[in-house]
């Protein structure tokens, strides 16, 4: 890779990796898996960095992230999965905001991967229906139906009075 391309990639990672990690956490529901997913997506993007054109490579890398997450789900279905109890090294945080975000994260984890990806891209990434459809490689109608079904399922999981807010910090 040319030095110019490498420095552009390093600048991109420095400025946009937090945004990509937030999306990865929402897609995987696990910080450790999200970090691994982001690392894998960035390696794939690095290999093809010279082909990425346009003023902002973020949508291209985000699509790599989403498609890699989907392929990991398929692969995980055939592997043995060991579930360890969650640990919080920083100790419990008893603020209402943290508890609400955790409720949302748990509810998102119960949705199918494609439905979760649609909701994350539409609301956490604030993408339009058309851009979400392009990122997922599906039709706008699919995005609309998955959004409606996903929100209905979240309402059912969280209770009718719960405000549906997708945010991860």
Briefly note the CATH topology name of the largest domain.
Rna Polymerase Sigma Factor, Chain: A
Largest sheet: none
Q: Report the portion of residues in β strands.
A: under 5%
Low-pLDDT stretches: 164-169
Question: Can you tell me the number of structural domains?
Answer: 2
Radius of gyration from CA coordinates: 17 Å
Task: Give the total of beta strands.
Answer: 0
What can you tell me about this protein's structure?
The structure is a single chain. α1 crosses α3 (58-76), α2 packs across α3 and α6 packs across α7. This protein folds into 2 domains: 1-79, Rna Polymerase Sigma Factor, Chain: A (Orthogonal Bundle); 94-169, Arc Repressor Mutant, subunit A, CATH 1.10.10.10. It has 169 residues and is mostly helical. It has helices at residues 3-28, 31-47, 58-76, 96-109, 113-124, 129-136, 140-158. It is globular.
